[in-house]
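Data's thin. Show one?
=====
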Amino acid sequence: MSSGGGSVEKAQFVNEDTKASFKVQYNPREFKFDKPVQWQAHDEQGTESTLEFQKAQPASMQVELYFDTTSDGTDVRSTWVNQLLELTNPNVSPTSGEAAELGKQRPPRVSFVWGEFELVGVIESVNVTYMMFGSGGKPLRAKVAIQMKEWAPDNAYSGGGGSVGYDTASVSLVQLQAGQTITAVALANGTTTQAVCDANGISDAINGAQPGDSLVIPQK
């Protein structure tokens, strides 16, 4: 198996439901990772729009692997590709909260581990292109594009000192205008001065923010 780029590193796919795993060589020219965070602008006539946090969407990633069995002449499907396709088979019974119908099976949850990077999720698609064939049409080389979507614990992106998950309470961002005080902003948004100071790490409610600063306003 081979691919283009820099030095070859081992990556690993782990079936989180059975703990079965297999390793592949991974040497990408590029690595695509996307973590959407949804914000919505308030429709406030005559003022600069403020932003309200809606929710953090699951991350997604795309990897491209190359498999080559020309050295031993084995079928690249049975040697490599089928191990990935097996991770898309709906053979796991969901637990409470995972599905409306618990009798409907799902594919396994999968971890992709490459060096210090790890994404726990599910495989959304496996796109295979066969590029070389032996006698009788046996495929010997394949390019496989894999799309995964995150399915991780709520605190997967927490930093030191706290947990930040998908169920984080809604907040607004408000820009402090000339002549405004933190207290005035808090009252206008139905919260308290202390709550705004705590959300923004401000110890001095009078001098702790300047016009033009964006303040996080916690929502009940």
